[in-house]
């Protein structure tokens, strides 16, 4: 059942919606509230409202972009927006965009809510949207209103909230004072808000004239809220009594399956877990049908959630990439080719050793800790977390000590600046290792964005600020050592941030329990993954390492910069894996093979789409981008373009390595990677002799593409899963045929849009 409020701004729609939510939950009804955006007060942690504003804008963008990935599924929403905006076009372009995206997202949430058991309360929905379009288009025509009302879906209960003009003005002024500063920009002006009352009164009269029942209430004083809610509650109970038991049984079964699915739309605030749904005897047939329908909806919602999470992760990665590029730009300009070559060489070793000393335990956490959490094995979950942290820390400390000892033994053979730079880099290894493992734990706890924010945004942002401040103030000599010290400090601060987030998200179920360990089983998984992590870093850094070993430090700097540009395209696969890895592990643990195929197909499409979006501008602007870093780097653009094309073709394969490791095929995946890592090393060693950095670029891209082809073949043989793009095209074509051959089903959905 859907309950919809409409009324002028300041009438008390949101207040009544929340009061009704509490009342219905007290009565034992499963109730949800949708699309409540109004902040209660200025937050202590966000006094200016910047976080609120960015969150609101980001939610709107992500929701709309996610819907564009399914144009057929969401065709009804796009059609509704087009027709409503065509009839009542807002004159202000900002409000045109805002109202359009609001109706678009509202249509999708309404569609998801129309066939579920809980009572969904909208503090404002389609009737309010029609009134808003009328105000912003300055249209007062009953004929146009009637046509618009016939296009929108019909709620079960419509509640018109009247307000006295003087009371409205006072409430709007109080709201403005209590809101964060930036949140006020989302509100229309006072004169515009006062234009709503006559428009809404006309719409209400038109609804009742054409037989649409409307509950008319007025909230003058806070003390009258119980009386108003009583009136609305009576109308809802009357409508509920008219529901068919058979329909109620089927939907109840579907709702239970929805609850088992544990997936819900982010824009709907779910009920408190302590509120139980009403218990009805469920006939077996109806329950089976309902469960099947709910399972289909769960898959669709998981796909939508996956899309939104990937877009948010990709946006975070792009933000981080911008900061990384700014850091690389500043460092390259300050250190020039030789100094930047030393920095790149040291950081290549730091990256390689840091990922190796995680011992594959980041992937281990995503694979096993996620599975233990899904199966409520809390003792094993806690044990796996402690196992990962302690072993990774021990390995990182031992690697650092060994590296410093070796460096001390060869100190006299190395240039002093180079030796000190290596020492600083080696000391950074334990910090990076710990924050990588910590980020994996945060992903298991559900903090997908919080897991990548420290490394991608916080660390590079702090490094950029530190180096920029040093360059501006000239407090320290601007050399490789200073940049690496700044990297050490920013990495330490990042680790502190990761620890703080992990503590905040720490599940209550694993507090104060004894851990259980399965070291033999865990090591059998972690060691192959550790080898894969090291080999992947080695394949990526082989060009820099080989050029550095051969004494071509300047060419190593050129290759490193070109490779960093190409790594922008790899961000699409990284963003997809943020959500894909723990979800694939949980799905595989349940044995849901069709859902795993669906998840992999969706991940591949998102990986390719993100890769294309990033690769095209980089390929077109390669020359200008390299020129930004100075004349030392404005060389042959073909090196960067070759590496970019290799990353783009790899993105078309999707998260294949993640799929293998999350399904227990890590050993075969490691064997495949070992072969292609050896080919990369041998190929770079041979080609750099005659072709330098360009030869290394061709070999790096060629082996990367061949490796992905080999993984696709292996996945088909061991899991029976076709390449993700093949699955996606097949699913799209099948869905298109079903849509074309079932127009009556779509017509049945739009029948709800006709005004009674």
Automatic annotation (TrEMBL):
Q: Where in the cell is it found?
A: Cell membrane
Q: Where is the signal peptide?
A: none
Spans through the membrane: 311-330, 342-366, 387-411, 417-445, 457-476, 482-503, 524-550, 556-580, 600-626, 668-689, 695-715
**Which Gene3D superfamilies does the UniProt entry name for this protein?**
P-loop containing nucleotide triphosphate hydrolases
List the record's Gene Ontology CC terms alphabetically.
plasma membrane
Q: Which Pfam families does the entry mention?
A: Polysacc_synt (PF01943)
Membrane topology of this protein: Multi-pass membrane protein
Q: Where would you say this protein principally sits, based on its record?
A: membrane
Q: Which UniProt keywords apply?
A: Cell membrane, Membrane, Transmembrane, Transmembrane helix
Q: What is this protein called?
A: Membrane protein involved in the export of O-antigen and teichoic acid
The taxonomic lineage of its organism, from the top, reads: Bacteria, Pseudomonadati, Pseudomonadota, Alphaproteobacteria, Hyphomicrobiales
């Amino acid at each position: 059942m859907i309950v919809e409020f409409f009324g002028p701004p300041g009438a008390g729609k949101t207040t009544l919606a929340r009061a009704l939510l509490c009342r219905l939950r007290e009565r034992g009804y499963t109730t949800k509230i949708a699309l409540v955006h109004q902040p209660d007060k200025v937050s202590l942690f966000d006094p200016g409202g910047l976080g609120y504003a960015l969150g609101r804008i980001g939610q709107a963008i992500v929701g709309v972009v996610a819907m564009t990935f399914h144009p057929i599924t969401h065709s009804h929403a796009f059609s509704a927006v087009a027709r409503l905006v065509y009839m009542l076009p807002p004159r202000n372009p900002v409000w045109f965009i805002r109202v359009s995206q609001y109706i678009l997202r509202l249509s999708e949430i309404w569609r998801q809510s129309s066939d579920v058991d809980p009572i969904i309360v909208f503090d404002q929905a389609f009737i309010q949207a029609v009134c808003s379009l009328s105000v912003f288009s300055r249209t007062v025509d009953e004929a146009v209103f009637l046509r618009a009302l016939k296009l929108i879906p019909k709620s079960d209960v419509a509640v018109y909230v009247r307000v006295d003009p003087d009371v409205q003005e006072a409430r709007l002024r109080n709201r403005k004072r209590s809101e964060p500063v930036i949140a006020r920009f989302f509100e229309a002006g006072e004169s515009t808000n006062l234009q709503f009352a006559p428009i809404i009164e006309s719409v209400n009269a038109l609804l009742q004239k054409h037989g649409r029942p409307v509950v008319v209430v007025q909230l003058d004083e806070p003390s009258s809220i119980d009386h108003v809610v009583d009136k609305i509650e009576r109308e809802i109970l009357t409508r509920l009594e008219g529901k068919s038991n058979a329909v109620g049984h089927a939907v109840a079964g579907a709702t239970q399956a929805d609850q088992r699915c544990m997936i819900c739309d982010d824009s709907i605030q779910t009920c408190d877990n302590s509120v139980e749904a009403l218990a009805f005897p469920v006939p077996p047939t109806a329950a089976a049908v309902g469960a099947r329908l709910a399972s289909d909806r769960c898959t669709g919602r998981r796909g939508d959630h996956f899309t939104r999470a990937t877009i948010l992760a990709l946006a975070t990665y792009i933000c981080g990439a911008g900061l990384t590029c700014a850091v690389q730009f500043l460092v390259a300009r300050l250190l020039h080719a030789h100094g930047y070559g030393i920095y790149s060489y040291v950081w290549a070793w730091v990256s390689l050793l840091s990922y190796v000393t995680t011992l594959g335990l980041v992937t281990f956490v995503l694979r096993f800790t996620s599975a233990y959490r899904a199966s409520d094995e809390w003792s094993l979950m806690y044990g796996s977390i402690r196992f990962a942290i302690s072993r990774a820390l021990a390995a990182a400390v031992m690697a650092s000590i060994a590296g410093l000892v070796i460096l001390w033994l060869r100190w006299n053979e190395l240039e002093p600046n180079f030796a000190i730079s290596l020492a600083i880099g080696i000391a950074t290894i334990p910090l990076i290792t710990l924050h990588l493992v910590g980020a994996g734990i945060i992903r298991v706890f559900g903090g997908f964005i919080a897991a990548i924010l420290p490394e991608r945004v916080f660390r590079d942002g702090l490094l950029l600020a530190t180096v920029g401040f040093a360059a501006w103030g000239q407090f320290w000599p601007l050399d490789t050592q200073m940049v690496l010290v700044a990297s050490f400090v920013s990495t330490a601060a990042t680790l502190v941030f990761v620890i703080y987030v992990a503590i905040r998200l720490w599940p209550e179920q694993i507090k104060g329990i004894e851990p259980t360990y399965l070291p033999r089983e865990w090591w059998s998984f972690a060691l192959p993954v550790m080898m894969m992590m090291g080999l992947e870093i080695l394949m990526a850094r082989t060009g820099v390492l080989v050029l550095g070993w051969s004494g071509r430090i300047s060419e190593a700097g050129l290759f490193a910069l070109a490779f960093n540009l190409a790594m922008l395209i790899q961000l699409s696969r990284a963003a997809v894996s943020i959500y894909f890895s723990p979800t694939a592990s949980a799905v595989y643990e349940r044995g849901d093979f069709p859902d795993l195929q669906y998840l992999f197909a969706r991940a591949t499409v998102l990986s390719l789409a993100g890769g294309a979006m990033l690769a095209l501008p980089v390929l077109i602007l390669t020359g200008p981008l390299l020129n930004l870093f100075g004349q030392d780097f404005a060389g042959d653009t073909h090196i960067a373009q070759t590496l970019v094309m290799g990353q783009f073709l790899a993105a078309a394969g999707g998260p294949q390595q993640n799929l293998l490791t999350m399904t227990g095929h890590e050993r075969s995946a490691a064997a495949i990677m070992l072969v292609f890592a050896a080919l990369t090393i041998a190929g770079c060693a041979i080609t750099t002799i005659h072709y330098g950095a360009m030869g290394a670029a061709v070999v790096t891209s060629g082996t990367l593409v061949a490796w992905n082809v080999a993984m696709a073949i292996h996945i088909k043989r061991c899991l029976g899963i076709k390449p993700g793009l093949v699955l996606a095209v097949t699913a799209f074509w099948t869905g298109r045929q079903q849509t074309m051959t079932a127009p009556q089903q779509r017509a049945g959905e739009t029948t709800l849009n006709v005004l009674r």
